[in-house]
Amino acid sequence: MAEALSQQPSWWQTHKFTIARNTVYISIVIALILIPELKIIKVDIAHNESWLFGERRSLIDGLIPVIAALGFFAILVIVINMIQGRLFCGLICPGGWFAEIQEKIKRKIGKHHKLAYIFITFISTIAFAALFFNWVTDLRVFFYYTNPSFIPMWVAFLVAFPIFFWELYIGKRWCRTFCPTGIYQKLTPHFYYYKPALIPPYTTKDCGTCRECLKACPMALDPRKIALMEDTINRPGLSSCIVCGECVDACTDVWAKKGKPPILGFLHEVPVRQV
Ligand code: SF4
Ligand code: SF4
After folding, report:
1. How do residues 10-54 score in pLDDT, each as one tens digit?
2. In this predicted structure, what is the pLDDT of residue 125?
3. What's the CATH class of domain 192-274?
4. How far apart are CA 96 and CA 101, in angstroms?
5. Domain residues of the chain, as ranges?
6. Do residues 246 and 17 lie in contact, with contact meaning Cβ atoms separated by under 8 Å?
7. Digit-coded pLDDT (tens) for 114-132
8. CB of residue 224 inside a 6 A radius of ligand 1
9. H-state helical runs in the chain
10. Can you tell me which atom of ligand 1 is nearest the CA of 216?
11. Which of 90, 96, 233, 237 would be a feasible disulfide site paired with 229, CB 3.0-4.6 Å?
C-alpha cells in the first residue's frame, strides 16, 4: 500500500499535466496569432499578395510555406500517433483546447443558462475563426465591401462559421466523436508507449467511491481500465486517450490530501491482474 508522503505536494505538483499542457496550448495559440500578424508568414488574398519574414511576395510565394506547414503538421500527427497515440490532441491541437474550455464553461453555466452559453459560444467561434482567417487574408476585408474579396471571404466565413460553432458548442464531444483527425488517429496504426493505468499492486478496490479521474477525463474514459479493455467502436478504450494526464493530476490531488502518492500513473507495462 502507498507509503505516506513526508511532505504534502504543492499545488504545482498536483496539477503538473494541466499546467504543462496549457502552457504548450497557449504558446501555440500565441504563435498562430503572431506569425501572420508580424508577417513572418501570411497570405493576404484581399490584397493579392503574401508576406515572408516581413517581405512582400506574390500570393503563390506565400502559399508554399503555408501548404508546407500543413504538411508538416499532418506528418507530425502520423508520427506521434505511432509512438504515443493521440498526444497531438492532448497537447498541440488548438481546436481541442478551445473545445475543452467550452466544455468547462458548459458544465458551469450551460445547463441553467443556455442562452448565455450560446452567446459565449458565438463569441468564441468568432475568435476561433479569426485565428484561422488571419492566415489567409487581411481581416479588415470583412468591412470593406469595395474589395473584390469581400463577398468570397464572407461566403467562406459563413460556410466555416456553423461548423466551428457546432464544434465549440458540443465541446469535447467533438474530439470524442466527430473530429476527422481524431477518427484518423483511431483507425490508423497507433501505439501508446505510456498508458494511464493503476500502479501495481493497486486495483479499483483501493479507489473506494472516488471516481475523480473519471470526472477529470475530457474523453469520458475510465483511466483505470482503458489500457486493459478491449477497444471497440461502441466501447472506446485506449485509442481514445489523448494522453492529457488530467486523470493522473486528479488522482495525485486525491491522494495528496491523504498524504500519499497517487495510485494512477502513466505506465509502459500494464500487468493484467491489476484492474
Ligand atoms: S482518482 Fe485515483 S483513487 Fe480516485 S478513482 Fe481514480 S484511480 Fe481511483
Ligand atoms: S484517460 Fe487520462 S490521459 Fe487519457 S484522455 Fe482521459 S484523462 Fe487524459
Report:
1. 888 889 999 999 999 999 999 999 999 999 999 999 999 999 999
2. 97
3. alpha beta
4. 9
5. 39-187, 192-274
6. yes
7. 899 999 999 999 999 999 9
8. yes
9. 11-14, 16-37, 59-84, 87-91, 94-105, 114-133, 150-169, 173, 180-187, 212-216, 246-256
10. 1
11. 237
